[in-house]
Amino acid sequence: MEAKDLYIKPGNQERGWNDPPQFSYGLQTAAQGAPKRTPLNKRVPPPQLTGSPCPVPGDFPSATAPMTPPTNPLAPPCSMNTPPRPCPVAAPPLGGVMATPPPPFPVVEHTDSASSQSENEPDVDDVVTLLNWALTACRHTVKKQVCNDVAKRLKLFEDMWKSGKLSLPVRRRMIGLVQELKSCNWDAADEIHRALIVDHVNEVGQWMVGVKRLIAETRNLNPDLLHTQEVDQSLDTSSAGNSD
Amino acid sequence: MRGVEWRKRVAMATYQEFIQQNEDRDGVRFSWNLWPSSRLEATRLVVPVSCLFTPLKERPDLPPVQYEPVLCSRANCKAVLNPLCQVDYRAKIWACNFCFQRNPFPPSYAGISDVNQPAELMPQFSTIEYIVQRGPPNPLIFLYVVDTCLEEEDLQALKESLQMSLSLLPPNALVGLITFGRMVQVHELSCEGIAKSYVFRGTKELSSKQIQEMLGLTNPSASGPQGRPAAPQDPAVTCRFLQPVHKVDMNLTDLLGELQRDPWPVPQGKRPLRSTGIALSIAVGLLEGTFPNTGARVMMFMGGPPTQGPGMVVGDELKTPIRSWHDITKDNARHLKKATKYYDALANRAAVNGHSIDIYACALDQTGLLEMKCLSNLTGGHIAMGDSFNTSLFKQTFQRVFSKDHNGEFRMAFGGTLEVSTSRELKVSGAIGPCVSLKAKGPCISENEVGVGGTTQWKICSLSPSTTLALYFEVVNQHNAPIPQGGRGAVQFVTQYQHSNTQRRIRVTTVARNWADAQSQIQHIESSFDQEASAVIMARLGVFRAESEEGPDVLRWLDRQLIRLCQKFGQFNKDDPTSFKLSESLSLYPQFMFHLRRSPFLQVFNNSPDECSYYRHHFVRQDLTQSLIMIQPILYSYSFHGPPEPVLLDSGSILPDRILLMDTFFQLVIYHGETIAQWRKAGYQEQPEYENFKHLLVAPVDDAQEILQTRFPMPRYIDTEHGGSQARFLLSKVNPSQTHNNLYSWGQETGAPILTDDVSLQVFMDHLKKLAVSSAA
């Protein structure tokens, strides 16, 4: 899972009041089972009962150390006035490198345009070739109807890509998926498909189930079937070729 | 500090550790960790001996064992071998610690010795899990029941979520689809050919048998001489409506994609005709007939209230609004009793079969959760409540139903049963949580029923690692009877369930606590008090009572218990309120009660009946930490004056140069004080020399995000500031409510000591102290 795939989008404030932000699949799965960084579970007894004048101080989760109170009531305390401390914001603010506060998750608007070009623009033919390689292998044992159904969806995927309807993250991650498929890393490929359908269901919803099925059927194949003559031919005939 | 105070503080610190260790290991929190040895003394302690128990608490360090548990051979005992049992390794005999029966070990234990103990005898395995596979594993079943009377945007979003969920289901699960609007359609999920569906009228009530016949699930031509239907050999093959997802995912994806809005036109001034009642009855009947006693989830998605057929909650005329609290108190809710009874019957049928029902309700107005809540409450199913299916709140809450643990296994579990055994001095009064009674008879059952009582066995059809029951016990030893030999009482919890990987498992937790003579050891008993657990335990009792009693009666009862507790354990001089003190083990308890009284669980008039049902649904099933948050929201303060710290949930904590993060469980509120808000508006955080301010702004957001990432259900997220309209979420929690509806202005009875409603914490505490120290009370 690349860092780009760990993101948060704002909620849909038009349809739901105070709709919470939406976490990408990668962020959600990363959080599961991970211990809480800052458990917020402390309370303060009312002073009337304990006889103590001030509440018991709580946990100190975040890394902010004490600072001098602001002298200028119109502005927050300026970093330059603070005594030196372990916290990263030290001396003159000359655009120096800030060491890490708790890892900020960039809030990214999903604005990657479908037709944006980058220097690593994935080629659809690479992806389609690999998918067809797997499908060809499946045709030996998997029912014809199922294979045709998968083929139909792969075609839809290809058409959507070529007509610029798929965003860059989807295209990029599909490349990753087929690489895993080629390397027979079935679980990894499956996980990418899951992440894609959770994060981009409106783009991939119609055809992704074909990819899902393809992974599921291919992993059950006799490994020999993955390297029959016709299958390897279908790999060789791709114009872009794939370096191993 | 006086010697007694110091000893109490040390004792309490030790008990804190003890309490935490026990919770971490066994998922149990008792109200008292030293038990009063007589019934009379137990009642004088006010808070009953009771516990919160999380049957499937996540234990990443606990490897399950692959053999069957060893049971006591006495017919009405059947307790499981555990570390409290006496063992004679030479004679290969063990003595049950509950009934003292001597049992021989099974032959497979021939090799045990005191240096070669089986795991279940080791103290560190007070909680242990057995994998027991008897017969072929049953697949899990997910039956989607989908309302098509939705706005186009909502239907599209829901369809996409459902398509997405096919990728999240366990791979071998069976899946089914029922759609409804004016009619109810049961879709056949075949792998080939034209999609067929069976259509039912949304108004006609059918019996389970009729439903099964109409769906062709019984084969009259193949029936025997008595006319009984032939049993299907392999339900997975023969049931066209519930098929393995890995076979039908493509077809189902297309089917979902092609779903249209209910075609029946909705005239001006009318609601769509929604036959929710019949749809659910068909779902329950379908599962009953094909997969009784297998883990199954009915997942119902609805965008509005049921408006026709049995179980209707409101008519189709928009000018007749759905019932409000006002209507209910004036006995003006036409459909309420009948609808509640209808869904209650369905819920019980589903529970008997081990099937759970989830409700995902997304609409701007109420949808009938008040009438339908038993469907989820009795079966352990979820209720999610949102404004629209096209919101992050719904989408992520729904995704999290399928969340996995650190091992990559689904958290959801099915078909749970819990059985409790106790040593002779204790009996079981009942349980409060998402369960139904199995009505088992036994020697440990108390006549005093609390919650779901009259049994020591309950069914929890669907459970998660956070599902928590409150269990109430009664000490039955007579006053002045000697302390039982061995000095400890014991409780054993045996939970059988179906793991999401379809294995059947049994988790056994056995705990013990010392008996103490309340006359001579009251201070020790006091130090063993778990105020957090007790607050939740009493709160669940209060909420349970509130479902059947009048609201003011419950508040009076709660107040009475609190005053009695303060009278018993407070240190004070008679009639001198200013002298009143509570030890640390009780110091947070009155505050919990103060906030509980003001909470939406007991103050229903600030929320709709549906909202109240929703809040209560989550309250009576969550673990201790989350339940406490619901009772008394967490409030943390972020400022330049020091590290983030918890502060009193009081208006005095709102200061201009502070950011407050409040967690109510259902909402996360970040409130910027006046000065902070001005700085933010001026944009100081963008300037490099004010990087510290940027960090300050980000700190509560990061902490909130950590909560947002994992909580189920997804909470609302409110970013507000001094003077902002959304600040009311914070202000209503910290201040006495100005809009409190005094419909029931009680306090008019003479003699009964009561606490004044609707005041600040300060005033509440003053009243409490006055009443506790009064010699007239």
Automatic annotation (TrEMBL), chain A:
Molecular-function GO term, any one: transcription coactivator activity
Stored InterPro entries: SRA1/Sec31 (IPR009917), Steroid_recept_RNA_1 (IPR040243)
Annotated compartments: Cytoplasm; Nucleus
Region (Disordered): 1-69
UniProt-listed GO biological process terms: apoptotic process; regulation of transcription by RNA polymerase II
GO CC annotation: cytoplasm; nucleus; ribonucleoprotein complex
Main location: cytoplasm
Assembly and binders: SRA1 RNA exists in a ribonucleoprotein complex containing NCOA1. The RNA also forms a complex with PUS1 and RARG in the nucleus. Interacts with AR.
The protein's name: Steroid receptor RNA activator 1
Source species: Oncorhynchus mykiss (Rainbow trout)
The organism's taxonomic lineage, starting at the top: Eukaryota, Metazoa, Chordata, Craniata, Vertebrata
UniProtKB/TrEMBL annotation, chain B:
Membrane topology according to the record: Peripheral membrane protein
GO biological process per UniProt: COPII-coated vesicle cargo loading; intracellular protein transport
Cell compartments where the protein resides: Cytoplasmic vesicle, COPII-coated vesicle membrane; Endoplasmic reticulum membrane; Cytoplasm, Cytosol
InterPro entries, per database record: ADF-H/Gelsolin-like_dom_sf, Beta-sandwich_Sec23_24, Gelsolin-like_dom, Gelsolin-like_dom_sf, Sec23, Sec23/24_helical_dom, Sec23/24_helical_dom_sf, Sec23/24_trunk_dom
Gene Ontology annotations for the cellular component aspect, listed alphabetically: COPII vesicle coat; cytosol; endoplasmic reticulum exit site; endoplasmic reticulum membrane
Record-annotated Zinc finger Sec23/Sec24-type domain positions: 69-109
Keywords: Cytoplasm, Cytoplasmic vesicle, Endoplasmic reticulum, ER-Golgi transport, Membrane, Metal-binding, Protein transport, Transport, Zinc
Sec23/Sec24 trunk domain segment(s): 137-402
Similarity section: Belongs to the SEC23/SEC24 family. SEC23 subfamily.
Domain Sec23/Sec24 helical: 530-628
Annotated Pfam families: Gelsolin, Sec23_BS, Sec23_helical, Sec23_trunk, zf-Sec23_Sec24
UniProt source species: Oncorhynchus mykiss (Rainbow trout)
The protein's name in its UniProt record: Protein transport protein SEC23
Domain of life where this protein originates: Eukaryota
Domain Sec23/Sec24 beta-sandwich: 413-516
Functional description taken from the UniProt entry: Component of the coat protein complex II (COPII) which promotes the formation of transport vesicles from the endoplasmic reticulum (ER). The coat has two main functions, the physical deformation of the endoplasmic reticulum membrane into vesicles and the selection of cargo molecules for their transport to the Golgi complex.
GO molecular function ontology, one term from the record: zinc ion binding
Keyword Aminoacyl-tRNA synthetase tagged: no
Entry keyword Metal-binding: yes
All residue ranges annotated as the Gelsolin-like domain in the record: 644-730
